[in-house]
């Protein structure tokens, strides 16, 4: 019979209210670790000798402070690191700020990240590529990146980027899309308007300031759901959006480890070992589905 342990972490500067718990395994023991407020984020096992700072964004339905248990990606991330004995400190920021913190070495891990090609330059360190500064983990499940249009509005998109060169596209600040699309954007062959997040993208599209937006459709729908709009407005907005076929790409997600940490290779290896172990044991997809269903029942 497995033993169930409860670790309570109390330290100065934190509130006493516990938040979302995370279950993880050490041998045959299932440990339930509660979070506490720490600085501007959440902390687990904060008294550990090896403590990591992670930066992320609110990006439902994957991860978001408004989601049940902060979303399956939050749960998975904390679990992976706790199982390796790390203390975990997670803060939520707009993506451009989270990216800056990681590239400047002020955070140990940035997540979730799309795959980054070797030639992509840092936005924060002149003359450095993203891969000079960060190292990507083994992939975990993600979603489709698509061009999104308005229902009933004709689009020239035929599956090729050539077909949308005359259109204005809404993108999110500091996001990487597909290498092909980003090259066309960077060379000014496709015009863009930059938004700070997906909800702003939707408003650009609905106000006809752009012809299309680039997004994970599930993130758009979840962003509408978490908004303060009336239910009728939410439904109208969701009904107005359509993902054009074919999708631009299926985009797995990654953890991006800062090479500014002297132990970055060890951290990366620990993450990869835990991810690969779950994959080899056919546990990763079932874990994600379990976390989704836990919240759907609440």
From TrEMBL:
<feature type="signal peptide">
    <location>
        <begin position="1"/>
        <end position="17"/>
    </location>
</feature>
<keyword id="KW-0732">Signal</keyword>
<protein>
    <submittedName>
        <fullName>Transporter substrate-binding domain-containing protein</fullName>
    </submittedName>
</protein>
